[in-house]
Amino acid sequence: MIRTPFVVNLAVLVLSLTTLPTGTTGELLAQAPRTTGHEHLGEVACVDVPPGEKRPEFGCFNVGTVKGLLFPKAAVYWHLRAFGSRQAADAARSATGIVVEEDGRVWLSEFGARDAAPRGGEAVAVIGPLQLPAAKSYSAVLSYAVMRPGDSSRVHTHPGPEGWYVFAGEQCLETPSGANRAGAGQTMTVPANVPMELNVTGTALRRAFALVIHDATQERGTPSDWKPAGKCGP
To answer: Rounded CA gap, 77 and 111, in Å?
Structure first.
C-alpha cells in the first residue's frame, strides 16, 4: 500500500493530539467555564457562639449584649462608629456601649438621642429612630451576619425594634406591609412585634450588623406563623 503525503500528515496530527503533555491539558481544562453553587440556608436565626468554639463561616451570630438599659425617651438612635484600635474604642465607650471587632475593623455601638453621638473614631451611620415599647428596662443585642444570595432567615418577630447596617451585598426584608431593600452602606429599621423574613438578594455575599433593643424580661426573638408572600423574590 502506498501512503500519500496527506495520510502521513494526518497520522502525525492524530499522534500529536493523543500525546498532548499533561500540563497543556490542565491549562485547557482550567479555561473552561465552571459554575459553583451552594445549598441555601433557610430558617436562619441569630445565635450565641460558646467561648472557645469556632464560629461557622455563614450564619448570624450574636457578638455583643448590654443589659439594664434605661432611656428617657421612647425614640432611640443607634450610633455606629469605627476606630483604629480596640484601645481607642474602649476609651470612647460609655457604660452601655458595645465594642466588637468584625469585618476587619473595630466598632463602637452607642444608643441614645440623635444628637448624643460618642466622641472619637469615624462616624459610620446613625440608625433610627428605633421606637421602643414600654418596659422597665431594656437589653440590646448586636449581631453580625454573613449570608449568601438565596439564604433567608426564619419567619420571626422581636419584642423590640430592629435596625441594620449593611457592609456588603443586598438584603430584602418582607413584612405584612411589603418588601424593604437595602444595599452596601445603607441602613434599615423595623418596628417591634412585626413578623418578618429577611432574604439575601443580588449576587454578592451579604455582611451586616443587626441590632435589637427589647424588653429585658423577654427573649430577643421568637418564631412566627405569618406566611410571607414572596415579595423579595426575583
So the answer is: 6
- Closest C-alpha among 172, 176, 209 to residue 193: 176
Contact 78, 163 (CB under 8 A): yes
Contact 174, 228 (CB under 8 A): yes
pTM: 0.82
Average pLDDT over residues 120-147: 97
Q: Grid cell 430577643 — which residue?
A: 220
53-67 pLDDT, tens digit per residue, is 999 999 999 999 999
Beta pairing partners, 64: 142
* 96 SS3 class: coil
Q: Which three cell numbers stand for residue 13?
A: 496530527
Give the model's pLDDT for residue 19.
37
Annotate 139-159 with DSSP letters as a single string: EEEEEEEEE-TT-BBPSEE-S
CB atoms within 10 A of CB 47: 13
Domain annotation for the chain: domains and CATH numbers: 59-223 (2.60.120.10)
Task: Please state, in angstroms and rounded to a whole number, the distance separating the CA atoms of residues 176 and 174.
Answer: 7
- Which residues are paired to 126 by β-bridges? 79
With H, G, I as helix, E, B as strand and everything else as coil, classify residue 6.
helix
Q: Are strands 162-168 and 98-102 parallel, antiparallel or unpaired?
A: unpaired
